[in-house]
Specification:
Helix content: 25-40%
Strand content: 5-15%
Strand order of the largest sheet: 4-1-5-10-9-6-7-8
Structural class: alpha/beta
Largest sheet: 8 strands, parallel
Radius of gyration: 18 Å
Number of strands: 10
Number of helices: 9
Bound molecules: N-{4-[(3-aminopropyl)amino]butyl}acetamide, zinc ion
Order of helices and strands: EEEHEHHHEHEHEEHEHEH
Distance between the termini: 9 Å
Shape: globular
């Protein structure tokens, strides 16, 4: 049996956001380095199943095809922040975009859409390596060297749009993978994070060669609130190629698997893609402090099996999941679904 290649770079651990603001309160930031360590340690315990690799750095041109020059300039500006300082914009502009100056960190509010996603001098270092993991995993699958590959991407990416960051995401890792794969054929992205993958949706909204599907908690009550509704179906040539599926709080394996089998799989089959990208969040776990679904550790393997049965070359990209203690086991359970 072939091992699944796993991509990770230790530089991803240099970024340590300290706080986020929730309902006026300052809380410990959930997107900790412990998350990646939990996954890495669990993967290392299973050396017979996984092949841990360090990715090459991602070409800047790949990031530039997906993200605006302004956004990248802003991340560079954050590189000048003093060590240990996390920057949060304190103004939320809705006009005067013409005057936006990404070389001025005080203008970060032009590019930011939430209060949980600080910038500091390590943001670029960590997020570019995180994107590199996704890009290299996609390269591996594109070249046909492996049928499956997993990117231990952190910080996550699916909330990052072309021009904005938020939801703990700075660069859209999964979009980097999908964009590369699209050069050789149609791609479907399935986002199983508890939150709507608004960034990935936006990036391929007018694209009929990448079908984007996201299954998530109701945006009426959950982040990102302003999108993820079922009437967002794509635009122009991409109309009919975006699908949002909302599940109730408290949904467990039965609901989840029925949704996959009855809705998601038919949507994938009618599209007939050449590649599958899974935006794999584990904040659907029953103990997750943010998500409100009820999946158990052993359920992830069953969820993965549904995707395995599609028989498609598949790139799995790490997104959210905040119950650190069990995160590694949940990820390994999921990956085992591809090793049957
Ligand atoms: N404490 C991802 O899972 N804030 N992002 C929630 C509740 C935003 C989650 C506030 C959650 C974003 C990649
Ligand atoms: Zn999430």
């Amino acid at each position: 049996m072939n091992k699944i290649p796993v991509y990770f770079n230790k530089n991803q651990l240099l970024f340590r956001p300290k706080y986020e603001w929730v309902l006026g309160k300052k809380i410990k930031h959930p997107e900790t380095t412990r998350r990646a360590e939990s996954i890495f340690n669990e993967i290392r315990k299973n050396k017979n199943l996984f092949d841990i690799r360090c990715p090459a750095n991602i070409p800047l041109g790949v990031i530039r095809e997906l993200h605006s020059d302004d956004l990248i300039t802003l991340y560079n500006s954050a590189g000048l922040l003093p060590e240990g300082q996390d920057f949060y914009p304190s103004v939320f502009p809705h006009e005067n975009r013409d005057n936006a100056d990404p070389s001025n960190i005080f203008h970060a509010g032009h590019y930011c859409f939430d209060s949980g996603t600080p910038l500091n001098n390590r943001t670029w270092m960590a997020s570019s390596w995180s994107a590199a993991c996704a890009f290299e995993a996609a390269t591996e699958v594109l070249q046909g060297n492996s049928r499956f590959a997993y990117a231990l991407s952190r910080p996550p990416g699916h909330h990052a749009t072309g021009k904005t960051y938020g939801g703990y995401c700075y660069l859209n890792n999964s979009a980097c993978a999908a964009k590369l794969l699209r050069t050789k054929g149609k791609v479907v992205t399935v986002d199983i994070d508890f939150h709507h993958g608004n960034g990935t949706q936006e990036m391929f909204y007018r694209d009929s060669r990448v079908k984007t599907i996201s299954i998530h908690g109701d945006p009426k009550r959950h982040f990102p609130y302003y999108c993820g509704y079922e009437d967002e179906i794509g635009m122009g040539p991409g109309k009919g190629y975006n699908h949002n599926i909302i599940l109730k709080d408290g949904s467990g394996l039965t609901t989840y698997r029925n949704t996959l089998k009855n809705q998601v799989i038919p949507l994938i089959k009618e599209f007939d893609p050449k590649f599958l990208v899974i935006c794999a969040g584990f904040d659907t776990y029953h103990l997750d402090p943010i998500g409100k679904f009820r999946l158990k550790t052993e359920d992830y393997q069953k969820v993965a099996k549904v995707f395995f049965d599609l028989d498609l070359p598949t790139v799995i990209i790490q997104e959210g999941g905040y119950y650190t203690k069990d995160l590694g086991r949940n990820v390994v359970s999921f990956l085992m679904g591809f090793l049957t």
